Predict the 3D structure of the following.
Amino acid sequence: MKIFTPAKIIVFVCGMAITFSSCRKANEEGTTNTADTVANTNQILVTFPKTSLDIANTDSVVAVFFDGGARTFTKRASRAGSFYTIPLEGLAQGNWQSNIKVYTRATADVGARMYRYQSTINSATSSSLVGPTGKLNDTWKTNLLLNDRNFSVKLAIAVSPTDPYYELTLPPTLLNYQNVYIDRYIYRTVDSTDYVVAYGNAILKASDYKGTTINTTTFAGMAAAMTGQAWNSADVSVQLYNNSGNAYREIFKQTVVNQ
């Protein structure tokens, strides 16, 4: 089993543990069931004032609603001026868990991002919330975003070391490779030297993870260890590899700096 590590590592000060992911499947694309017949004219507005990101840099807004049971609904927002509207049509009135995601395009300074806001909403009334600022200490959680068109691999993974969230979408058959390897390195800089203060990885057999998977457990240990700890930068990389031979390919690597 190969473990591929970033070349920038100077000193490794915590133990590495290889973790095979325990994930749950998520249907987040156009879920329908009998509750879709429920009439509900309420909506959620996501506004983008000057204190938020420039709405012109946003690509889309998607909201996922679930009630803790079998019902899960995905709603795509429509844009009008400086806000997005998320319809609640089909949701029975009551409390729903929500995961609202704002997707942004890459700019000259920042790569593509997904900002997520998780809360409980009451579908019996309309509501509004202010869009993300793009800062790490925001109520919206920042995620790096990968959309590899060559292999049809999509990944959103948390930037903050204390956030274990990632969601991965794989095709029915991953072309030429059997496994996906994701790693996260957290660094603290002392006297111009980067020290690794936390590390986590996910190893996934591609044939077991077709479609979209959401995971908050694989990096939970790393996130717990980093609670209250200082950090300066973080690396995330994604590699594809086979069980035998030397075939592997890095399809994503990005470094973020703590603000």
About this structure: Residues 11-23+165-257 form one domain. Residues 1-22, 27-35 have pLDDT under 50 and may be disordered. Residues 220-226 form the longest helix (7 residues).
